[in-house]
Amino acid sequence: MFTEAAELSLVGAIYPLALLTSALYLASTSPGRMTVLYLLGGVLAVTIIGIAVLVAIRATGLSLPHHHSTRYGLRLALGVVALAAAVVIWNRKPKPPDPAKPAKPSLVSRLSAQPRALTAFAVGIMVFGPGVAFLAAVQVVATAKASVIATIGAMVMIVVITTTLGWLPLVAYLIAPDRTTRSLRQVVAWLKRHGKAVLTGALGVIGVLLVIQGIIGLA
User: Fold this and answer.
1) Would you say residue 98 lies in a domain?
2) CB pairs under 8 A, 24+ apart, for 168-171?
3) Is residue 210 part of a domain?
């Protein structure tokens, strides 16, 4: 249970926007405070949704043996969704800029450009909103025959891994602020060029893993 949930969470944590947003807050006038609030928003969102999904799966009986096919059918469906999302993102081309209209930044970009406590918290909720890999990881825990302590431990692990790109840059900044800032600038520059490929690759890996697991489980 722990290994499978960790693998899914780790792949799902590869989310360029999360790191880009962390870099923005660490470069703000109040880097520590803003990044902590951003991280807290993410942790809260992931925790609440994770608990809700866990309770829903167990309350509907999907963790019971006779729902074996339903569980793996759901996992197969999540895999197909991830693969479809990867294809859509890869094939999506940005609209050519209109010279008559200034480029409009995304909602997350607008909020993170204003380093305020409430907006930082809200951005964390939006950025770390659970994805397909997170839901699959929670399903692994929810359908496992594990004790309450093991279940809590696995859920904590999923939350920590899912928000890695929020807390890891912060820890690095607290240890070595100047070096971390320089490194983040380089990483952000690289992600701006290759972020689409990184996100597509992560979704593709998630999709393949879930499809394989679903087919094997159903077979």
Assistant:
1) no
2) 169/19, 169/22, 169/23, 169/26, 169/35, 170/22, 170/26, 170/32, 170/35, 170/36, 170/39
3) yes
- Is the pLDDT at 23 greater than 60? The verdict is yes
Is residue 118, in this structure, part of any structural domain at all? Answer: yes
Cβ(168)–Cβ(180) below 8 Å: no
Tell me the pTM: 0.82
- Burial, 90: exposed, middle or buried (Cβ in 10 Å; 0-12, 13-18, 19+)? middle
Domains contained in the chain, number: 1
pLDDT digits (tens, 9 = 90+) for 28-86: 888 889 999 999 999 999 999 999 999 998 888 776 666 667 777 888 888 898 899 88
Which residues form the domain of 86? 2-93+105-218
Q: For helices 148-162 and 31-59, what crossing angle results, to 10°?
A: 140
Largest CA distance in the chain: 61
